[in-house]
Design a protein that fits this description.
It is a single chain. By secondary structure, the protein is of the alpha+beta class. The chain contains four helices and eight strands. It has a domain at about 25-45 and about 85-165: Alpha-D-Glucose-1,6-Bisphosphate, Chain A, domain 4. A hairpin with a 5-residue loop joins strand 3 and strand 4 (about 80-90). The chain starts with about 25 loop residues before the first strand and ends with a strand.
Length: about 170
């Protein structure tokens, strides 16, 4: 299967460093109450997640259900992207993340939803839990297109792509 997030290969990066890459952290504000922002991220993910960031392509159905985040093809094949490891609806959800990577080397995705004034919600997205060394560097490079994906979530609420702020 082709890499889904970047054009990086699955082979380890050339770095032999034992250091773990830093977290990728993004923040945006959406014009909706916390429960709606959470529900849109989790329950309506199939409406905003771009098919070009799936394994099956156009016609795929992305879902978060029964403790799994994944996709189903038009023919009924499924691909598991990760598992829900913590959920405190509507405040946060956390996944082990293996989309297009080895299942035995998951990373961590955590999404937090904090209410702010005027019926808006601040959404903070953190991806970390990288392996150490060259595998961690390869994971870090692979999952570099979150701003594009999260811009689709922001657009679901009528926000522009620049609503997604990179914090780290």
């Amino acid at each position: 299967m082709d890499p889904l997030f970047s054009h990086a290969s699955h082979s380890p990066a050339s770095s032999d460093s034992a250091e773990t890459p830093p977290s990728r952290v993004y923040r945006m504000r959406v014009p909706a109450p916390q429960d709606i922002a959470y529900s849109a991220f989790v329950g309506d993910i199939h409406l905003w997640w771009g098919f070009n960031y799936t394994g099956f392509g156009e016609g795929t159905h992305v879902y978060v259900e029964d403790g799994v985040i994944g996709e189903e093809s038009e023919s009924g094949e499924t691909q598991i992207w990760g598992h829900v490891v913590a959920e405190d609806a509507p405040s946060s959800i956390e996944f082990s993340w293996t989309l297009a990577w080895r299942e035995d080397a998951p990373t961590r995705v955590r999404v937090e939803f904090a209410p702010v004034e005027d019926q808006a919600t601040e959404v903070t997205f953190t991806h970390n839990g990288w392996a150490s060394g060259s595998e961690g560097q390869a994971q870090y490079q692979k999952y570099s297109e979150w701003p594009i994906i999260l811009a689709r979530y922001a657009a679901f609420f009528g926000r522009s792509a620049d609503a997604v702020e990179t914090l780290a």
